[in-house]
């Protein structure tokens, strides 16, 4: 077996310990300007509250050590800036750099949420314009930009539904959730005070509309749908689904995680969706930053508008904008201040760069996904054959015959210079491989990905052990997650000795020569 | 691993054994094999009342949480304290030292309705797995 | 479009390769009548310089050129340029949640360092990888106490940030939590008599903020005894983390919920920030949020992974206890870099400058006729003053002199009719403090 990995090559990569391990009393990395008022006596001012000895164990290092420390750490990460993340439903697209610049402008980054609203018209105009753009994109009537993340947007959406139904006299008991849904959906429903009832997908992976008809009773508050579904397939009967719910006084909630397949092409509001959240860190390019921050605005039809969380953006006489907090029907505040403003700025910058041409991004995303699907069909099993939109779900059924599963394939993909796709989700596909390239990938990157996946499939057939022991070329090999969970070590302690300098073992070293194809482990 | 002849078994892969009116409950070798490496166990306190067929605790692996269902009703007398520090015992000795709880049964006759070792082995064989690891 | 790496020819080739005649074919699963026939009405497209222009124009319509004395949960502190140099590196900025540990060791080690710093600051044993902000962290701390104690009553100091209390109420409305507020006494701290009367064996948690919303420093050590005797947990919220450079950490608290904005995150009109929940090791499985743990790889090297993931909602689904999926990784990273730069002595010095400037400002303000400090407890960088007349009117006059005056307490605390919360940090110069006091003098001297 001889595989040639085209996208990645090994390279000398710096080691680095913990910042605390470089610490030595007397080193400083930052100076303050001198104190220009009389020095307070902390013992006198604070009495027993005075922390005489400072923060024990806090690092004491120099500026260059801090810079090198974090720079070295950064080189251990994969990132969009390096290449594709084929992660299904994550929409890992390009994070435009101009967004970083505008979010940091003096007069944008410096504003205090409690400063007079007359001195915040610039901020409020940004919020207003973003609201208007997102309403146009979603086809909804009203919106809140408050929620800090998709999960918080989901909770806000359900609380809106609850408040609306409560106002009519009965909040009802249940929320219906498809078995293909992301775990945040049922978790959120429970936190919103509802019971979860599962609704099964039919043989094509779509919601079983006939079953839905039976399940929607007067006890059902809402159905939480993801569209396209987590299989990347458009729920073709969504207008019917909306009608069934509305006929019984229930509402349709849409998880907007997959908006990257819809923006500019179709509007959820037009399909009968009553309320939905958006993930600005997915569809609208705000950076993931290693796991946050994000933002999860919630767009809704008019009936839910009175219940929006405070503060509410309003336009007053003369065009002056204001944030208001007196709203008797509001569900209340979901977080302090007014949303993740810095994230909202970035999303608006993205929309302004595209303008109406945002449809092109959606089209390219769907084109890329279908291109990849076409070239991997037959190489990996395709459990559901309906057309894919912006993502495609395969399974590991063919590779399982040799004992190679989706996790193994994902880890081997790392050796090929890619981040893995989403493994083992959705749950309705055992051994799932969920692939979403986004529009940010060139044909060249897509072709490299296809090559890699085909090569790994071949390896799974010819030398499965190679795949099962992957990755082979990373700084660390597979990590002991079991040990980490059984005996959690969640912080550095001064008495813990630093490990010996990280050295490759002799065995590992022999196969880590540069520029040779990676063969089976020694 | 063999399934002790004197135990009884549930469809949810718990085992129960009776001695002097006190029942001991655990999960089977099949269950631990399905779970993978166990990292944590959550068990009820002594005095807790458990109901037949209802969950009384959980067993966790790195990526999954499994409920444990009561084979019969009763009051918990003791929970196996060793499992807090050594949850891996469930993987190595699920039928012996990794028992989960001891229970005073409300109705000991309930146990007779459960599968015996032969029936359980047949049950899991039909699930397409080899019964003896 | 510059963000799209395809030429028209490439699109055609790719369509041909998959046997599609047009891109519209790929959308055929959307019922025809719903597919948009018009282009969306959106502003743009803008070139890069036009995007920058748009935001520069908005920036000019805000508060540039004004000096501010606002705190109240969001603080102006010095930040090093090194912080942005690090967090703008693409490997940090554009990386995903570190589920694939082998190619995320940079993020994971930084998170582990963050968790360590938060423990060191708060005197707690474990800390999570961050939550959305201080307000949701405080709410999560309360929910955590509810799970641990299996009780539903929560006693919350009125001197906890008003918006933090609002958020808690929003979350409590569906969870069966009963929230009661406890008054403050004339020192500005929690009314311990009222606490004693309210403490029964049905209380899950007692929540105080320190320094509290009035700037007064609470006494967690003194409160802990009574709280624990009732079988409840003590939750301490911290909105101004720089205070921990000079103040004893609330080590007696069972759970600390801290806002990390003061550690290198700009005010940014209210977000994004980062909250932290820190607690005892024995409560680790009830703790919300992500956790990075140290481990070894198959060849014995030290490495880091996300751990105890079974607490999280994507595994527990309907049995989840929290629905927080993200942490605020990049914000937490900024805090980690910032605190590493400040270090032990830098943080202490920064805290000392805050204390000194606030003391100085109070001294100058008390020279004004009719202006006095409202509460007597020790304070850090915020304090409450009572003015002889309406704060709103005084602030209007200050605005004319390009000064954003202190926070008006009367809105959230109607009994504090003429009270203002003044915040002074190391970023406020002596000259600005003196100018503020002089302007306030003029404002108070104006005829009504």
Write up what this structure looks like.
- The complex is a heterotrimer of chains A (522), B (133) and C (448).
- Chain A contains 17 helices and 12 strands.
- With 522 residues, chain A is an alpha/beta fold.
- The longest helix of chain A is centred in the last third of the chain and has 20 residues, at 443-462.
- The model of chain A is unreliable at 502-522 (pLDDT under 50).
- Chain B is 19% helix and 31% strand.
- Chain B has helices spanning 29-35, 82-85, 89-92, 117-126, and strands spanning 8-9, 14-19, 22-27, 40-42, 49-50, 55-60, 65-69, 74-79, 101-105.
- Chain B has a 6-stranded antiparallel beta sheet with strand order 1-2-3-9-8-5. A 3-stranded antiparallel beta sheet of chain B has the order 4-6-7, with no helix packed on it.
- The radius of gyration of chain B is 14 Å and the shape is globular.
- With 448 residues, chain C is α/β, with parallel strands linked by helices.
- In chain C, a hairpin with an 8-residue loop joins β11 and β12 (382-386).
- In chain C, α11 (329-365) packs across α13 and α12 (391-400) packs across α13.
- The longest helix of chain C is centred in the C-terminal third of the chain and has 37 residues, at 329-365.
- The mean pLDDT of chain C is 95.
- Chains in contact: A-B, A-C, B-C.
- At the A-C interface, α1, α2, α3, α4 and α5 of A face α1, α2, α3, α4 and α5 of C.
Q: Which characteristics define this entry?
A:
heterotrimer; A: Aspartate Aminotransferase, domain 1; 7-stranded mixed β-sheet; globular; disordered C terminus; B: 133 residues; alpha+beta; 6-stranded antiparallel β-sheet; 3-stranded antiparallel β-sheet; 4 helices
Characterize this entry briefly.
The complex is a heterotrimer of chains A (522), B (133) and C (448). Chain B is an alpha+beta fold and 133 residues long.
In total, the number of strands of chain C is 15
CATH class of chain B: Mainly Beta
Mean of pLDDT of chain C: 95
| Biggest sheet overview of chain B | 6 strands, antiparallel
CATH superfamily of chain B: RNA polymerase II/Efflux pump adaptor protein, barrel-sandwich hybrid domain
Helix content of chain B: 10-25%
Which strand order spans the largest sheet of chain C, edge to edge or round the barrel? 2-8-7-6-5-3-4
Segments of chain C where pLDDT lies below 50 for 5+ residues? none
Gyration radius over CA of chain B: 14 Å
What is the CA-CA span between the terminal residues of chain B?
Answer: 5 Å
Q: Tell me which CATH architecture of chain B applies here.
A: Beta Barrel
Number of domains of chain C: 2
Mean pLDDT reading of chain B: 91
> Which class do the helix and strand fractions of chain C yield?
alpha/beta
- Oligomeric nature of the chains: heterotrimer
* CATH fold-level name of chain B: OB fold (Dihydrolipoamide Acetyltransferase, E2P)
Distance between the termini of chain C: 60 Å
Radius of gyration of chain C: 25 Å
What is the CATH architecture assignment of the largest domain in chain C? 3-Layer(aba) Sandwich
Q: Report the uncertain regions of chain B.
A: none
**Overall body shape of chain B:** globular
């Amino acid at each position: 077996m001889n595989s040639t990995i085209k996208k990645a090559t090994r390279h000398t990569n710096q080691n680095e310990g913990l910042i605390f391990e470089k610490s030595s009393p007397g080193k400083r990395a930052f100076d303050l300007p001198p104190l220009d008022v009389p020095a307070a006596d902390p013992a006198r001012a604070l009495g027993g509250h005075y922390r005489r000895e400072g923060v024990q164990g806090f690092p004491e290092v120099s500026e260059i050590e801090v810079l090198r420390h974090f720079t070295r750490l950064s080189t251990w990460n994969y990132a969009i800036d390096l290449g594709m993340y084929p992660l299904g439903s994550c929409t890992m697209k390009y994070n435009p750099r101009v967004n970083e610049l505008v979010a940091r402008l003096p007069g944008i980054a410096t504003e205090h949420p409690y400063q007079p609203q007359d001195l915040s018209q610039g901020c409020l105009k940004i919020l207003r314009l973003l609201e208007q753009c997102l309403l146009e994109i979603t086809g909804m009537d009203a919106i809140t930009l408050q929620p800090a993340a998709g999960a918080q947007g989901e909770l806000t959406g359900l609380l809106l539904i609850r408040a609306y139904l409560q106002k009519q006299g009965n909040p009802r008991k249940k929320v219906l959730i498809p078995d293909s849904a992301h775990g945040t959906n049922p978790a959120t429903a429970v936190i919103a005070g509802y019971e979860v009832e599962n609704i099964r997908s039919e043989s094509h992976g779509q919601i079983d509309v006939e079953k839905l008809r039976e399940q929607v009773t007067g006890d059902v508050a809402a159905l939480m749908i993801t569209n396209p579904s987590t299989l990347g397939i458009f729920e073709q009967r969504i207008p019917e689904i909306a009608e069934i719910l509305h006929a019984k006084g229930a509402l349709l909630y849409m998880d907007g995680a997959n908006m990257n397949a819809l923006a500019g092409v179709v509007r959820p509001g037009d399909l009968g969706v009553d309320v939905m959240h958006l993930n600005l860190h997915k569809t609208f390019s705000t950076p993931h930053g290693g796991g946050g921050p994000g933002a999860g605005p919630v767009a809704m039809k008019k009936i839910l508008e009175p219940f929006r969380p405070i503060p509410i953006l309003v336009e007053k006489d003369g065009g002056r904008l204001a944030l208001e907090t007196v709203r008797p029907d509001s569900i209340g505040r979901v977080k302090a201040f007014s949303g993740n403003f810095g994230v909202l700025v970035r999303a608006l910058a993205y929309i302004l760069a595209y303008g109406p041409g945002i449809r092109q991004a959606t089209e390219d995303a769907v084109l890329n996904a279908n291109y990849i699907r076409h070239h991997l069909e037959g190489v990996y099993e395709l459990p559901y054959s309906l057309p894919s939109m912006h993502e495609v779900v395969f399974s590991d059924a063919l590779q399982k015959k040799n004992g190679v599963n989706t996790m193994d394939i994902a880890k081997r993909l790392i050796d090929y210079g890619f981040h893995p796709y989403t493994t083992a989700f959705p749950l309705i596909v055992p051994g799932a491989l969920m692939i979403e390239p986004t529009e940010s990938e060139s044909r060249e990157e897509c072709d490299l990905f296809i090559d890699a996946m085909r090569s790994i499939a071949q390896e799974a057939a010819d030398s499965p052990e190679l795949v099962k022991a992957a990755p082979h070329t990373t700084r660390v090999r597979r990590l002991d997650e079991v040990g980490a969970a059984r005996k959690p070590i969640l912080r550095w302690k001064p008495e813990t000795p630093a490990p010996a300098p990280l050295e490759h073992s002799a065995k590992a070293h022999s196969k880590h020569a540069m520029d040779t194809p990676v063969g089976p482990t020694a | 691993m063999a399934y002790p002849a004197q135990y009884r078994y549930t469809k949810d892969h718990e085992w129960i054994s009776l001695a002097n009116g006190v029942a001991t409950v655990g999960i089977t070798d099949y269950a631990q094999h399905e779970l993978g490496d166990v990292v944590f166990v959550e068990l009820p306190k002594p005095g807790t009342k458990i109901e037949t067929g209802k969950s009384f605790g959980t067993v966790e692996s790195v990526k999954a949480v499994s409920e444990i269902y009561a084979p019969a009703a009763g009051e918990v007398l003791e929970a196996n304290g060793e499992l807090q520090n050594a949850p891996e015992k469930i993987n190595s000795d699920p039928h012996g030292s990794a028992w989960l709880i001891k229970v005073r049964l409300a109705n000991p006759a309930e146990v007779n309705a459960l599968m015996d070792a032969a029936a359980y082995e047949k049950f899991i064989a039909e699930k397409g797995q080899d019964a003896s690891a | 479009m510059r963000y799209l790496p395809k030429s028209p020819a490439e699109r055609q080739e790719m369509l041909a390769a998959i046997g599609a005649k047009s891109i519209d074919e790929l959308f055929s699963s959307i019922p025809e009548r719903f597919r948009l026939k018009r282009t969306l009405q959106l502003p743009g497209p803008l070139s890069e310089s036009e995007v920058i222009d748009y935001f520069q124009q908005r920036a000019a319509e805000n508060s540039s050129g004004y000096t501010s004395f606002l705190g109240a949960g969001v603080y102006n502190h010095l930040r090093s340029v090194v912080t942005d140099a690090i967090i703008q590196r693409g490997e940090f900025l554009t990386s995903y949640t570190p589920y694939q540990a082998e190619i995320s060791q940079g993020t994971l080690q930084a998170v582990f360092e963050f968790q360590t710093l938060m423990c060191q600051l708060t005197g707690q044993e474990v800390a999570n990888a961050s939550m959305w902000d201080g307000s949701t962290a405080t709410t999560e701390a309360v929910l955590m106490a509810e799970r641990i104690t299996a009780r539903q009553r929560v006693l919350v100091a009125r001197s906890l940030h008003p918006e933090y209390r609002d958020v808690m109420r929003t979350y409590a409305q569906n969870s069966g939590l009963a929230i009661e507020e406890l008054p403050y006494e004339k020192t500005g701290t929690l009314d311990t008599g009222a606490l004693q009367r309210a403490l029964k064996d049905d209380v899950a948690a007692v929540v105080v903020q320190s320094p509290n919303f009035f700037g007064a420093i609470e006494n967690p050590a003194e409160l802990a005894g009574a709280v624990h005797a009732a079988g409840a947990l003590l939750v301490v919220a911290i909105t101004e983390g720089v205070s921990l450079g000079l103040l004893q950490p609330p080590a007696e608290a069972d759970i600390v919920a801290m806002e990390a904005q003061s550690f290198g995150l700009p005010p940014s009109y209210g977000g994004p920030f980062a909250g932290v929940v820190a607690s005892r090791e024995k409560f680790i499985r009830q703790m919300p949020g992500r956790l990075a743990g140290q481990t070894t790889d198959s060849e014995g090297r030290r490495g880091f992974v996300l751990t105890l993931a079974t607490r999280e909602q994507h595994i527990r689904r309907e049995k989840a206890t929290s629905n927080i999926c993200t942490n605020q990784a990049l914000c937490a990273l900024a805090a980690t870099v910032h605190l590493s730069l400040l270090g032990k002595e830098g943080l202490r010095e920064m805290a000392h400058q805050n204390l000194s400037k606030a003391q100085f400002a109070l001294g100058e303000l008390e020279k004004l006729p009719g202006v006095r400090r409202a509460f007597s407890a020790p304070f850090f960088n915020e304090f409450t003053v009572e003015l002889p007349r309406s704060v709103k009117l005084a602030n209007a006059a200050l605005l004319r002199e390009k000064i954003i005056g202190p926070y008006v307490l009367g809105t959230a605390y109607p009994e504090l009719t003429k009270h203002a919360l003044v915040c002074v940090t190391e970023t406020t110069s002596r000259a600005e403090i003196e100018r503020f006091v002089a302007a306030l003098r003029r404002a108070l001297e104006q005829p009504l």
